[in-house]
Write a structure and sequence with these properties.
Number of strands: 31
Mean pLDDT: 82
Low-confidence stretches: 1-14, 41-63, 389-395, 549-562
Length: 586
């Protein structure tokens, strides 16, 4: 859904304009806003630290937008035209990572801004992770080169460039361009007249990296709103980026957060009136009046095209830089669409025999059975070690695809098949660690509040259960008495008819309880082997000698096991969401 650029073609004679969204990401204080300001020629309404607390703290709190226009470079097609680079200045404050994740979905080209005197920092690494998930191309900008002494400047830039190339080696941005600039020589206090260094060269790099992203005007209209204000006598204007579909004058659009539908009265793109906008466009949409305070940011869409969900099934991958296991029942901050909410996870996979199955893209098969996992399986995770032991292939492989059930603490509104990111945003901001844990695609949302009763039973996730007991004595050639498989208070009735296997090889069936202490009778349809009978007779004799007539001692003696006790193995499946908790044997 990573938004994409549109070609505005107002009429046959007008020059075409290509819009490419460029995200400006990086660690706090790397100089992102100054760089966006140095690059841009036209400010948009949301641009440059508009929040009062942002101006006071000198940091960007929300996605600022501004744009830079330049003649269309030849590799983007013939004829006169204009390339519009919309600069999305993403905040770098650690607690604002939610905003960045929201912004990354509409970015075509990413600029990762690095303070040349500091190199990669925690958030630069997190921005790189988000970029790899949500973006196709990147340019690295080494900023603040004016802080390097002039004599050693070139050498320091080259050293940092090499370092960055090494960092990017194992990412999809390997070999991307690296430019060096000073967006605001002398820092924030310097007079406005000071000219930036290297910015015109950077513009050339950006032009060379601009591409025609695939834009699709079909499908339901969806737009991410980042600013909302009213104009007296006109209505309320919502500005943002079209994520999918298109919108025209006179269309009805829904504001799901407010549960209202409004008519589009007029539209503008960077101060130019338009009648149509499509995926990837930055646009202001004016609708009939409502209180703008109610919608600072959010989504608007074709009426009834979004779902509001309480839980979801997603397919997912762990982010390699996240330290620690992803455990079932753990809580994460889940970013879905443009919302971040707390959610609890449960991981599952195919059965080990099907680990190498081709992954199913953008769909989930409810007809299949899935194996419950205590944690996401990755190299070195506990469960994958256990699977190695139960693994018939002997490979200890990992599944090619894994899924999770997400249960949200409060419902979220989002499009189908949208990007999902799970993070641990409560990790200490100053700890040098990646807080992004996993990313995935939402395959199936659950809109019913009572999804636990109405929907989850369709999800066939099972746990494999293994119980072990011992044969206490032989009754006759076709039956034995077992113990230690059940607790005293267990209702043995529910286990009647289940198959068991003796360690000596015989197959048996549980027939029912025997006495009051959790013992039970097993029928051996094909009879006991002579060797087994000998073994069990020896065991029983030892026991009876151990303590005649003294019941306390007899209890003790039944704990004194023979040299080679015969064990009873009971294996069955139980489905996690089966209300009747039935035990199933294949």
């Amino acid at each position: 859904m990573a938004g994409s650029a549109a070609v505005a073609a107002p009429g046959p004679s007008a020059p075409r304009r290509l819009n490419v969204n460029v995200g400006v990401l990086g660690h706090i204080d790397s100089g992102k806003t100054a760089l966006a300001r140095a690059l841009s020629t036209t400010g948009s309404t949301a641009a440059f630290d508009r929040a009062p607390q942002s101006r006071a703290r000198g940091i960007t709190l929300d996605l600022g937008f501004s744009c830079l226009r330049t003649p269309l470079p030849p590799h983007l097609g013939p004829g006169p035209g204009e390339l519009q680079l919309t600069l999305v200045d993403c905040p770098g404050h650690a607690s604002l990572i939610r905003t960045i994740i929201g912004g990354a979905q509409i970015i075509d080209l990413m600029m990762l801004v690095i303070d040349v005197t500091k190199g990669m920092q925690t958030q630069s690494a997190e921005c790189l992770v988000i970029g790899q998930i949500a973006c196709q191309k990147m340019v690295v900008v080494l900023n603040k080169i004016d802080l390097l002494p002039e004599g050693k400047r070139q050498a320091a830039i080259e050293k940092m460039t090499k370092k960055m190339q090494k960092t990017l080696e194992n990412t999809k941005f390997q070999g991307c361009p690296i430019a060096a600039v000073a967006a605001k020589p002398g820092g924030p206090e310097a007079p406005e007249t000071v000219n930036p260094l290297g910015v015109s060269e950077l513009i050339e790099v950006l032009k060379s990296q601009a591409y025609l992203p695939t834009r699709d005007p079909t499908g339901p209209f969806l737009m991410a709103i980042d600013h909302c204000f009213s104009i007296k006598g006109q209505g309320t204007v919502m500005t943002g980026t079209v994520l999918s579909g298109s919108v025209s004058l006179g269309d009805n659009v829904e504001i799901p957060a407010l549960k209202v539908t409004k008519k589009v009265k007029s539209m503008q793109m960077f101060h130019t009136p338009v009648t149509y906008a499509m995926q990837g466009d930055r646009v202001g949409v004016c609708v009939t009046q409502f209180d703008p305070k109610l919608l600072e940011r959010g989504l608007i869409c074709t009426p009834e095209s979004l779902q509001t969900i309480h839980a979801a099934v997603i397919s997912l991958k762990k982010i390699q830089y996240f330290r620690g296991a992803l455990q079932t029942k753990a809580k994460f901050h889940i970013t879905v669409g443009h919302e971040t909410v707390m959610g609890r996870v449960m991981f599952f996979s195919t059965a080990p025999a099907d680990f190498s199955e081709e992954p199913l893209e953008n769909a989930f098969d409810f007809a299949k059975e899935y194996l419950y996992q205590e944690e996401y399986l990755s190299k070195g995770s506990k469960s994958s070690e256990e699977n190695k032991e139960n693994d018939q292939t002997g490979e200890g492989q990992l599944p090619r695809q894994q899924w999770a059930l997400l249960e949200f603490e409060k419902p979220v509104t989002c499009p189908k098949l949208c990007l999902v990111i799970g993070s641990k945003l409560d990790t200490d901001i100053h700890a040098n660690t990646c807080r992004l844990a996993f990313h995935g695609v939402l395959l199936q949302g659950m809109e019913d509040k009572n999804y636990v009763e109405t929907f989850l039973p369709k999800l066939k996730v099972y746990k494999l259960k293994h119980k072990e007991g011992q044969v206490e004595r032989v009754l006759d050639d076709y039956s034995v008495i077992g113990r230690s498989l059940f607790k005293k208070e267990t209702n043995i009735q529910i286990f009647v008819g289940l198959k068991v296997k003796l360690s000596t090889g015989e197959d048996g069936v549980i027939e029912g309880g025997f006495g009051q202490s959790g013992k039970f009778k097993i029928r051996i349809p094909n009879g006991l082997k002579p060797d087994t009978k000998v073994l069990l007779t020896v065991t029983s004799k030892k026991k009876s000698k151990a303590g005649k007539g003294d019941t306390a001692k007899e209890d003790e003696s039944s704990k004194v096991d023979s040299a080679q006790p015969v064990t009873i193995n009971l294996l069955f499946k139980r489905y996690v969401f089966d209300t009747q908790k039935k035990m199933v044997q294949s």
